[in-house]
Amino acid sequence: MKSADPDKFCKWRIVSDGIDFFRPYMGSKRVIQCHINVLKQLMRHDQQYPLITDLEDETFRDQVGKLDIGSCVAEIFDDTPGEGSHHVPLDLMVGIWISKLSINLMVDKKERKVLSLRLWGEDITLNPNTEDTRASCLAAKDWIRILTQILLNPKAWIASTNPK
Hints:
four-stranded mixed β-sheet, alpha+beta, elongated
């Protein structure tokens, strides 16, 4: 997206799809370090545009505060030792848009879901109050009911599904 005032801040919004292509040509001025817990906060359904002051990680908040309005790249890391740590690929980077008061993760909605499942084993992007989520839960409950019937009495289930 083109900016109205290119003298003030970055002319384009960086989306995560293009980072691999232009990151080798970027300097370090618009690259910040981001702990995986900050990424988790930015990916939650209720945190699409969190205020910079609401960011939980003080180090990250300070890095963001030093930057002008515009795009930047966040390099994700996880320094949590032991089994509780998450598998973070060595080259995990995401685009971030910084405005005057808030911040936005520039990752597509479907990609957020996939990344969430990959890193945490659950979809933290889902809003439990949306109609789509309720429909998905109902469909899952139907499948669980069917699978339970199959497991408890497979012969009866096969007989009920085969036309005579």
